[in-house]
Every structure is written in structure tokens, then in C-alpha cells.
Design a protein that fits this description.
Blueprint (H helix, E strand, L loop, with lengths): L2 H8 L1 H14 L6 H13 L4 H17 L5 H16 L13 E6 L6 H14 L4 E5 L7 H12 L2 E3 L7 H15 L3 E5 L7 H18 L5 E8 L4 H14 L3 E5 L9 H9 L3 E5 L7 E3 L2 H8 L1
Parallel strand pairs: 1-4, 1-5, 2-3, 2-4, 5-6, 6-7
Antiparallel strand pairs: 7-8
Helix pairs in contact: 1-12, 2-3, 3-4, 4-5, 5-11, 5-12, 6-7, 8-9, 9-10, 10-11
Length: about 300
């Protein structure tokens, strides 16, 4: 199954939520009532008020300037506008150096460890030598869960005992990666610390270790979010961006969400690219994000 088919299947609940409204909308007239109902529909799909108003205002402008009369043309125009809103930053992972580092952050329960395992399998399939670092030493059995995924993906894992210093785990992992000729190190971090200052301190400590051991390496800081949490996910993203300077978003559980519009809200409000999306439980159900295909599957 290709990207479009998987996205379309993954967005089934969102389309069931707002698709009927779209069909009715674009069967009517391009008048003020249409734009009002379009706003309601997009907000219902969790695009957020600010992002929705911006999209609808841009649609009004283009319909007026391009003298669009047909509903089909207006629908294509809306797709182009939403796809444009999603095109922020670099959607591809920037991991060209050997080795490179990807740091994964996010609250517990969003599918962070699972995402790391799936990405490890994908990168290995591309011919890269991958090493996982179990630096979430606060959550009971976090390292055990990552070890299961390292086995499924067929990649190396570095771990210590529960409660160990996360930065020490990262140091061990970087040392091992250099010795083994690894291409990419994927680092799992704690999903819950006592407060934002603790989170910042922990991530800064890990960053210092990476800077010292791998100066000049490519590095991604990826925030993993659960699509089903909708606007709460956006609030989380804003907090983590402030604390950690994220370079990209991985959105999980999109197949279980009736509010897929949150993807557009996150990209637009944070100006951070969505790099991967999770559309199922399988090891190959983590997919690089493609804005145009996503919007076509949504609308």
C-alpha cells in the first residue's frame, strides 16, 4: 500500500467526521454562508481557530482574484492553500553525517518508544547502521520495551539499569556507535520529569554530551505527539518547543483520530515541519510526511 492509500485509510475517522460536511459544502454556492460553514467544518476537524481563519481568508482572496466560479475549482484551491500551510522547514530528516543523532522527546503514552523502533526499522531498510540509546531511565520497563523493538528492527541497543543517569547512557551509546561504525543513534528520553526546568536541564546535559563526543554531527530533536489528543497536543508542542528547540514533529495514532486537521494547526502555529506520521500498528506504518498527499486524502 502506497503513501496516499495508507494516509487515506489512516484518515478514515477524520473524513467520517468532516467529509460529509465537505461534500455538502462544495455542492452549494460560493457565498458568505459557504465560508461560514467552511470555518465551522475546519474547526471541527481540529485545525484550530487561527489557522482556520487564515485558510478561509486566503481562499476568499484567491476566489476573488482568480474569479473562481466553480465549486470544484474552489476545492482544488483550498487543497493548495492547506498544502502550502504544511510546507514549513525541512520535511526530510537531516542526518547526513556519520554518525548522526536523533533525540526523541514527548510525554508518556504518545508512542515514543514505538516510533523509535519503527524508524529504526525504516532506516535499517535504507541500509543504515542504527543504534538505539535507552536514555529514558525514569519509566519502569522503558528500556525493556526499547529492547523488544531493537530486536524486531534488528538493530543495536545500549542501556543501563533503571534510574541511571540518562546522559551517562547517551555517552555509552555514542562511544559504542563510534566503535561499531554506526550511522545513526536514536535516543529515547524520559517522557515525564517533575517540571519544565528539569526537562530543560536533562536535555541540555544530553546535548552537552553529544556536542563533546560528536562535534559538528547532524542532529534532530523530534517531538512525538498523539494525534488523538488534538488541541492538547498543540499545547504540548508549544511547551516542548520552548523547552527543547524541536526540529520536527512525529504525529502518531493518526488512524485513530477524528481530528486529523491538527497536523495543519501544528505546522502552521509552530512553524515546525511534520516529518513522520503513524498510520497503524505495523512496523512499516510510520511514513515520511507528504503535504500534498495528506491534504488530498483529507479533502
Amino acid at each position: 500500500m502506497g503513501f496516499f492509500e495508507k494516509i487515506k485509510a489512516g484518515l478514515t475517522r477524520t473524513r467520517e467526521n468532516i467529509g460529509h460536511s465537505f461534500d455538502q459544502l462544495f455542492a452549494g454556492e460560493l457565498d458568505d454562508d459557504f465560508y461560514d460553514e467552511l470555518e465551522e467544518t475546519l474547526i471541527l476537524g481540529d485545525m484550530g481557530v487561527d489557522t482556520t481563519l487564515k485558510a478561509v481568508e486566503e481562499l476568499r482572496r484567491r476566489v476573488r482574484e482568480e474569479k473562481i466560479k466553480e465549486m470544484d475549482a474552489a476545492r482544488v484551491c483550498l487543497r493548495d492553500i492547506l498544502a502550502g500551510m504544511l510546507q514549513v522547514g525541512q520535511p526530510e530528516l537531516q542526518l547526513a553525517t556519520t554518525p548522526s543523532v536523533a533525540l526523541f522527546i514527548g510525554v508518556n503514552g504518545v508512542g515514543k518508544t514505538t516510533t523509535i523502533g519503527k524508524l529504526a526499522a525504516r532506516l535499517k531498510g535504507e541500509g543504515k547502521r542504527v543504534l538505539l540509546a535507552a536514555a529514558d531511565t525514569f519509566r519502569a520497563a522503558a528500556a525493556d520495551q526499547l529492547e523488544i523493538w531493537s530486536g524486531r528492527a534488528g538493530v543495536d541497543l545500549v542501556r543501563q539499569h533503571e534510574g541511571a543517569d540518562p546522559a551517562a547512557v547517551v555517552f555509552d551509546a555514542l562511544t559504542a556507535a563510534k566503535a561499531r561504525g554506526s550511522d545513526v543513534i536514536l535516543i529515547d528520553t524520559a517522557g515525564r520529569l517533575h517540571n519544565k526546568q528539569n526537562l530543560m536541564n536533562e536535555l541540555k546535559k544530553i546535548s552537552r554530551v553529544v556536542d563533546r563526543e560528536l562535534p559538528g554531527c547532524d542532529r534532530e530533536t523530534l517531538l512525538v505527539l498523539d494525534a488523538t489528543t488534538g488541541q492538547n497536543g498543540l499545547i504540548q508542542a508549544k511547551q516542548f518547543k520552548e523547552a527543547a528547540g524541536i526540529t520536527g514533529i512525529v504525529l502518531t495514532k493518526l488512524d485513530g483520530s477524528a481530528k486529523g486537521g491538527i497536523v495543519i494547526a501544528i505546522a502552521q502555529e509552530l512553524q515546525v515541519p511534520v516529518k513522520y506520521i503513524g498510520v497503524g500498528e505495523g512496523i512499516d506504518d510510520l511514513m515520511p510526511f507528504e503535504a500534498q498527499s495528506f491534504v488530498e486524502a483529507l479533502i
